[in-house]
Amino acid sequence: MKLPQALVELRALSKDFGAQRALDRVDLQLFPGEVVALLGANGAGKSTLVKILAGSQPHDRGELRVQGTQQRFDSPLAARRAGIVAVHQHVDDGIVPGLSVAENLMLDELCQAQAGPWVRPSDLHQRAAAIAAGLNLDLPLHAPIEQLGQAERQLVVLARALALQPRLLILDEPTAALSAAEAQRLFELIGQLRQRGVAILYISHRLADLQCIAERALVLRDGRLVGEFNAQQLPQAIEAMLGVALDPLRFVPRLPGREVLSLRDVRLLPQTRTFDLTLHENQVVALTGLLGAGKSEIAETLFGLRRPAAGSLHLDGQPWQPRSPRDAINAGVFLAVEDRAAGSLVPGFSLRRTLTLPFLQRFSRGGFIDRRAEAAAVTTQIRELGIKTAGIDAPMASLSGGNQQKVVIGRWLLQEARLLILDEPFQGVDIRARREIGQLLRDGAGQRATLVICTDIDEALEIADRILVVRDFAVVAEYPRTDLSRNALVAELAGSAPPTPQTPRSTVRA
Amino acid sequence: MPDSLSRSLQAAPRRWLEALIHYGLLLLLGLIVLLFSLVEPAFVQVSNLFIILQSVSIVALLALGVTLTMAVGGLDLSIGAVAAMSLMIASYVMVVLDWGPLPAIVISLAGGALVGLLNGWLIVRMGIPDILATLGSMFLVIGVQLIPTGGRSIAVGMTLPGGEETEGVFSPAFLALGRGRLWDTVPVPVLVTAVLALAVWLFLERTRIGRLFYAIGGNEQAARLAGAPVQRYKLLAYVLSALLASVGGLLLAARLGRGDVSSGNGLVLDALGAALIGFAVLGAKKANAFGTLAGAVLIATLLNGLTMLNAPYYAQDFVKGLVLVLALVFTFGLARHTR
């Protein structure tokens, strides 16, 4: 059999960080017109491999060949010249606030030396429009980029990358911020690219995504390539990724206990519909919906970050209206926000400081911090959550994404909550860590109500006893977990649903 | 294994670099002391060392105030003006009004606290960026203190604009604050500064509110979402900063024995410099009490030694600038390479 020449080929590629080996003799080949999934647990070396291919970091040893020629990229520009472009996980790293959508699309061209010193707005818009049209994207080109939602921003970043006409496109968690319908649009785009002969290296924790689009999966573990699998062998791929077989999900249903919180006739914005919502002790409830449907806004209302336009909140039967996060926390309502970097982490803070930040009072005597009591509590949390760290005073930046996520969730477990709200707790977390976090939340749910926001339906199905669907800033449907049809749920999310199984009001009051 | 050997060899210079960044400025301080004492034996005499500390005590107090505001992610430019105002208030109360030292101290501190509240209000309530707000209040305060005396300095026995002669005096007890020595060796200002520096250090490093100060400075949103009363603590930082500056002004009044309108104006830049040099001490990369103190002492030592060696006075600012730039290179430039 005669194989076509590989577009990109790695031979015994290695990379060290200090004494730690991030990549260990990796061999792989990528061919034009194929979609290859790159799998690996947090810290397996996926990001390092992407950085080397995209030119953010040079490799230490081994060979990197692009169409037969040996390369060693010292800048993203060098990689781009060889036809390799990466779209990174954090969308906001790829856009420039203050510029319009068109300007953002044309950013790479504007940055080039031969572009000349003058910018003609009409020219710029014309070319930006051509880029958007080539991808069948309908974007408001004149609008400032800030007006776009996360999903549209993602598409802008992607379009920008595609305008460079790459031969290898690397997508790092492109669906992390997208809901199912939006992800579907991305997959269509990927399909088009593949037909044009572009090779795509796709990194995701969402196994459902991979099953949709990837022809084969490469698995990294501890910096080594441990196997190659086709799309039908995903369970084996996961086993290879984790080094052990994953136990089947153990789901013990939990019955609702006392009512903790209820929203009555609440209207989030003046123009949106009213809805009711009741949360009980001992139950884990998932809130799902498309991006921008208003899930986070419901959480923010409960946490005192915004006031509802109408309606009333009741906590343990008493009317209640939090005026600030501080108010909410004092009442036992805790929220782990979606954006970990912007909302939870403090640059320069160690694990210990990050973990104890909300409940420092507990470790203080006469205003002074009792460092021994603090250390003991932190050590306990590290053990219970299975956080992998060099020590309690390790900087947060030294932890992998999954472990950072455990810390910012764990901080809200330091004290018994009445209502614990977690906004997208599984983002950027590999499947094993996701199961661990989910189990931990379910096991500890006895004395509190737990509300988990997840855009990903499979995540919702994995963790929740009840699933609520949010659309246009209101809870529009409710499903008990039993006899739930995933397809009906998807239809409801998109708002194209046939009659819902139950109306929200009747179930909530039932 | 040859592989691991080569790696550990690579790691060795890295460790040296890290150690250099960590202890660089303290080493520099030690080196300067060593050098000066070799060239000029009088330098290391106890009396001279206390002269150095005395010369730095007022700037150090102001720098500790800036450190507090920097910890919450802000900056207080009005401290020099507040110190000058406090000096003028104290002089006015004692010399013109003849109310005695205790009311002078209380009213000065109250005036300082008021400016701190104003700063906090402008920043927290009005949402004015910290540098602009404190720059504005700096000009305001500099202007206000000139009004009661018609722009003249206050001295014992001076003639007021109205023609009558003042009768009040700086009492010996008040002057002792600036000129006295404990056990005939430790100057009182050094003692006051040492105690307050320890208090600020304890506050920032060991108390709950201090920890929250740093959280607010690092990521205000994260601190708010963790339940910290962000606005209240930012206000507190500016009040504490202004109070420390007021104490500095009182010590200055006690040392000078007159209400000199032009004193205190140069203090703000020296204080800022000391606090910024503090970023580099022990690799802190943030405002911290120990670093600020070390930064202030480093500059004072350098200036004292150079003066002893008859270096021209106009070289002083050049030397301060050099140390500051060096410190910033230690903190930000070199630290980048160790990653």
Automatic annotation (TrEMBL), chain A:
<dbReference type="Pfam" id="PF00005">
    <property type="entry name" value="ABC_tran"/>
</dbReference>
<keyword id="KW-0813">Transport</keyword>
<dbReference type="InterPro" id="IPR003439">
    <property type="entry name" value="ABC_transporter-like_ATP-bd"/>
</dbReference>
<dbReference type="InterPro" id="IPR050107">
    <property type="entry name" value="ABC_carbohydrate_import_ATPase"/>
</dbReference>
<keyword id="KW-0547">Nucleotide-binding</keyword>
<dbReference type="InterPro" id="IPR027417">
    <property type="entry name" value="P-loop_NTPase"/>
</dbReference>
<dbReference type="InterPro" id="IPR003593">
    <property type="entry name" value="AAA+_ATPase"/>
</dbReference>
<protein>
    <submittedName>
        <fullName>Sugar ABC transporter ATP-binding protein</fullName>
    </submittedName>
</protein>
<dbReference type="GO" id="GO:0016887">
    <property type="term" value="F:ATP hydrolysis activity"/>
</dbReference>
<keyword id="KW-0067">ATP-binding</keyword>
<keyword id="KW-0677">Repeat</keyword>
<dbReference type="InterPro" id="IPR017871">
    <property type="entry name" value="ABC_transporter-like_CS"/>
</dbReference>
<dbReference type="GO" id="GO:0005524">
    <property type="term" value="F:ATP binding"/>
</dbReference>
